[in-house]
Amino acid sequence: MQTLDQRVADLERVLVSTTSALLNSILSIATALNDQPGFDKNALLRELDLVKAVQIEGGSQQHYEDTISMVQERLS
User: Fold this and answer.
1) Proportion of the chain above pLDDT 70, given as a percent
2) What's the CA gap between 65 and 72, in Å, rounded?
């Protein structure tokens, strides 16, 4: 049986891996969309601004906003 510290460490690894995989996937999608003719980049940027304004309870607002900004920068 694992100790509590070992279980927490395992959980941290899974969360970091999942978050990184999702962010990298979204950044790849943003890059691919940028290359598509007729893609309304400004509409997506406006939507991301709206999503960025959402207040995150119990999380890091700065990290949340920084992550969305990474996607916006990929589109710029």
Assistant:
1) 100
2) 10
Based on the structure, what is the number of domains in the chain?
1
pLDDT at 21: 93
User: Domain range spanning residue 35?
Assistant: 4-75
The angle subtended at Cα 43 by Cα 40 and Cα 48, nearest 5°, is 130
From the list 23, 33, 28, 25, the residue with the least C-alpha distance to 63 is 23
The pLDDT assigned to 61 comes to 92
Phi-psi domain of 52 (left: phi exceeds 0; alpha: psi -120 through 50; beta: other)? alpha
